[in-house]
């Protein structure tokens, strides 16, 4: 049974949402088939890939929400973090005449043409997770997280923790050109302005554990464990890779090098409980119900908001220990 986005919010309960902007539902070419009386609504979902634990949880949430039981036929594509492949997957959805398209865009730029093609074909597009730089009239709605706020919360912790102490920081950036990498960097920089935290190096680890480990190995070769006081990782998977590198170099993560990260996936929260990470800002991946609700409303011609932000929270080591066994991802 397909739920509207408001029904989804009620269902999810604890997920606090703030809605911004407004748009009328496109109606779409198929307009949701017979309106839910039994026909499945065909939806194309262009996922980034499978780069992190966060992505796995997001994919699972989307596949559960867009199930046949809920009235959907989901055509799923994972683009292996390749922006060109992702755009080509969306073009394939258009040529197959799907009724709606959902995208988790790998990078912000390069979407104008294919979104215009979807619009010309009368196929509404819903964005989930990351955002695009294309004009907002080219998509019906977006649901995700406030990445800049996540960066601010991580930076505020670092400013509080290190304040006026001269601190040498290295940064593991997310995928180059992605909204979370851009916005988390901007938010963190704003929050540490005026402190004695100095960024001595910053490089992308592409949101992957291997990427984080390789880049951190390079930082450690260049500066040594003693030359680095703080690591800011744009996601837990890169932080976990960096932990391996720090330990291999004879350092103690969480002590010799403090670590602040974003996501709060299970392995990241475990490292936080174990004292290897010092602070984590959550980035909720469970967006499936909300995205499915938006597709249902847009195909029904309902007016939906242009933007839905899902609220995040933060965790210290003590807070993680109290909740880790009860978290859904
Ligand atoms: C954020 C999401 C990011 C996660 C990473 O919403 O796009 O991509 O922080 C994931 O773990 O790879």
First and last CA, distance: 24 Å
CATH architecture of the largest domain: 3-Layer(aba) Sandwich
Structurally, how many domains make up the residues? 2
Strand order of the largest sheet: 1-14-7-6-5-3-4
**Whole-angstrom Rg:** 20 Å
Strands, count: 15
What would the principal axes of the Cα set say about the shape? elongated
Strand content: 15-25%
- Along the chain, the helix and strand elements come as HEEEHEHEHEEHEHEHEHEHEHEEEH
Ligands and ions found: beta-D-galactofuranose
Averaged pLDDT, please?
Answer: 92
Outline the biggest β-sheet: 7 strands, mixed
> Runs with pLDDT <50, length 5+?
10-15, 21-35
If you consult CATH, what is the topology of the largest domain? Rossmann fold
Which CATH class of the largest domain applies here? Answer: Alpha Beta
Write a short abstract of this structure.
This protein is α/β, with parallel strands linked by helices and 329 residues long.
Would you spell out the secondary-structure blueprint of this structure?
Layout: H1 5-12, E1 17-20, E2 23-24, E3 41-47, H2 53-65, E4 72-78, H3 83-96, E5 100-103, H4 112-120, E6 125-129, E7 141-145, H5 147-162, E8 167-173, H6 179-192, E9 197-204, H7 209-223, E10 230-233, H8 236-248, E11 258-263, H9 266-273, E12 279-282, H10 288-299, E13 303-304, E14 307-310, E15 314-315, H11 317-323
Parallel strand pairs: 3-4, 3-5, 5-6, 6-7, 7-14, 8-9, 8-10, 10-11, 11-12
Antiparallel strand pairs: 1-14, 2-13, 12-15
């Amino acid at each position: 049974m397909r739920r509207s986005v408001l029904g989804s919010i009620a269902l999810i309960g604890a997920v606090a949402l703030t809605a911004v902007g407004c748009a009328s539902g496109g109606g779409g070419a198929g307009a949701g088939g017979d309106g839910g009386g039994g026909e499945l609504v065909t939806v194309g979902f262009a996922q980034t890939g499978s780069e992190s634990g966060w992505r796995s949880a997001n994919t699972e949430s989307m596949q559960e929400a867009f199930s046949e039981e809920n009235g959907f036929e989901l055509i799923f594509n994972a683009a292996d973090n390749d922006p060109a492949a992702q755009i080509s997957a969306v073009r394939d959805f258009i040529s197959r005449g799907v009724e709606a398209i959902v995208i988790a865009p790998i990078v912000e730029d390069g979407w104008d043409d294919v979104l215009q093609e979807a619009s010309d074909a009368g196929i509404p597009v819903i964005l989930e997770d990351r955002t695009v730089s294309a004009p907002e009239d080219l998509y019906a709605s977006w649901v995700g997280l406030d990445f800049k706020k996540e960066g601010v919360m991580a930076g505020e912790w670092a400013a509080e923790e290190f304040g006026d102490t001269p601190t040498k920081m290295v940064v593991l950036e997310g995928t180059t050109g992605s909204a979370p990498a851009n916005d988390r960097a901007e938010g963190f920089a704003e929050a540490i302005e005026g402190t004695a935290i100095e960024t001595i190096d910053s490089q992308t680890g592409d949101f992957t554990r291997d990427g984080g480990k390789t880049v951190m190995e390079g930082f450690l070769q260049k500066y040594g464990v003693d030359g680095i006081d703080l690591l800011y990782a744009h996601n837990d998977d890169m932080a976990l890779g960096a932990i391996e590198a720090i330990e291999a170099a004879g350092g103690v993560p969480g002590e010799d090098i403090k670590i602040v990260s974003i996501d709060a996936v299970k392995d990241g929260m475990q490292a936080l409980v174990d004292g290897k990470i010092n602070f984590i800002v959550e980035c909720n991946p469970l967006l499936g119900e909300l995205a499915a609700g938006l597709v249902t409303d847009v195909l029904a011609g309902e007016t939906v908001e242009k933007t839905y932000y899902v609220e995040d929270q933060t965790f210290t080591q003590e807070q993680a220990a109290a909740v880790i066994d009860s978290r859904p991802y």
